[in-house]
Amino acid sequence: MSNFEALFDYIQEISGKLLSEDDKHLLMAHFKPRKLRKRQYFLQEGDVCKYIGFIVKGSARTFTVDEKGHEHILKLSLENWWLADFESFYLLTPSRFNIEALEELEVLQSTNAQIEEFLKDIPAFSAMANVISQNNTIATQKRMQAAMSYTAEKRYEDLVSNYPHFLKRFSQNMIASYLGLSPETLSRIRKNSFK
Amino acid sequence: MSNFEALFDYIQEISGKLLSEDDKHLLMAHFKPRKLRKRQYFLQEGDVCKYIGFIVKGSARTFTVDEKGHEHILKLSLENWWLADFESFYLLTPSRFNIEALEELEVLQSTNAQIEEFLKDIPAFSAMANVISQNNTIATQKRMQAAMSYTAEKRYEDLVSNYPHFLKRFSQNMIASYLGLSPETLSRIRKNSFK
DNA sequence: AAGTACATTTGATTTAGGTCAACTCACTGT
DNA sequence: ACAGTGAGTTGACCTAAATCAAATGTACTT
Could you say which DSSP state residue B48 is in? Predict the structure, then answer.
């Protein structure tokens, strides 16, 4: 019923390996479709992140709330991305993050224990995990560098040129928080860049 | 001659698996000891990071230089850590980073191609790689959150409580740059916290 | 021991970006 | 059609941290 093809295609593309029919059946048996309405939480601060979700449709944000009540978005997620607080998911510790659906969200979700099985039994899945972890290391390092070295304006320009689709899918407030800016500051940056 | 025991112990401890004698011989055959003097570069911006190094002794910093000529430290590394720009190392692209020895530095180094062999042939090595990649994902996420949500003072306090040994080994200027602060600001923060 | 090169501290001033507040547009649901 | 809510804009003001500059401390070198 639910769209497992998206998941299969993704695994095969990222890993560069094919999934056997057995592999596919195993995945279908242990990834459960789940729908969340806009504003619904996939994960709440303080809970253990028991599930990892593959986004089939929709978008989400991962954020913290600081002592002043300000929200800070650490991750914006779209179709064909994994949704989880990996720290909590791997270590089974309570999460410091919230993950909230920004649009109606469809995921295929599974548990830590089950993922371990996939890693053991499905070569393409384990190859995919390695590639993702590499990509993730690289991306986070870039983002860290940007946060440290660049001005707000440069960070926004980088986003515009590297992730233009973000601007279509996420509100300006979300983008501002993702860039570590107040909404007002982003509004002003955009105003100036139109000259 | 050089201290391979440190490397063996590290792999076994992190992976939770034992290395066979064959494994050890393989590692000894393909990790080459290298010494760098203080201030010497392990990697220069624009070069491809051909080697990954395991630090046996000494310390290093990974940093970028922005258009104004300001340096930003992304990573401080000590004994039993891996030294590389993983983006450049994995993808064989020119690096945006510099890696410089802060003290006399002894590493055991190997190449990308060789690491691939280790991953295939040495189970403990591949288990270690997975654990490191997990830890790395978690640590970078924490650091990103800290950079976004916390004040300079809170970031320093976190460093003091989580990595007290950093303060012993790295100069205040290095710590400041690592925290994304000017040396003057860090000096003032320290002054205030002594009350 | 003297001299040069760094590190750190302190003070005065500047600035990027945040905060607070008011206003304008959409959209949504009734 | 109309209130209501959230998103974006604009202006006035504020603040954390950077910058500039000078003084002091420390630690290699020869």
Answer: B
pLDDT digits (tens, 9 = 90+) for B25-67: 999 999 999 999 999 999 999 999 999 999 999 999 999 998 8
What is the CA A171 to C1' C27 distance in angstroms? 14
- Which chain A residues contact residue B64 at CB under 8 A? 145, 149
CA of B101 to nearest chain A CA: how many angstroms apart? 20
Show the tokens assigned to B58: 């000494």
Burial A17-48 (b: 16+ CB within 10 A, else e): bebeeebbebbeebbeeeebeeeeebbebeee
Residue whose entry in the numeric block shows the structure tokens 């980088």:
A158
Q: Per residue in A72-116, pLDDT tens? A: 999 999 999 999 999 999 999 999 999 999 999 999 999 999 999
A·B CB contacts under 8 A: 77
User: How many other β-carbons are positioned within 10 Å of the β-carbon of residue A128?
Assistant: 21
How many residues does the structure list for chain A?
195
Q: How many CB atoms lie within 10 A of CB B159?
A: 16
Given an 8 Å threshold on Cβ–Cβ distance, is B148 in contact with A147? yes
Q: Which two tokens stand for residue B191?
A: 């002054």
Angle at A83 between CA A176 and CA A74, to 5 degrees: 25
Domain ranges of chain B: 4-136, 150-195
- The string of pLDDT tens digits covering residues A107-156 is 999 999 999 999 999 999 999 999 998 898 899 899 999 999 999 999 99
pLDDT at position B132, please? 92
CATH topology of domain A4-136: Jelly Rolls (2.60.120)
* A87·B138 Cβ contact <8 A: yes
Q: Residue A42 is inside which H or E element, if any?
A: strand A41-43
- Give how far B120 is from chain A: nearest CA, Å: 12
Among candidates B87, B134, B143 on the partner chain, residue whose Cβ is nearest the Cβ of A138 = B87
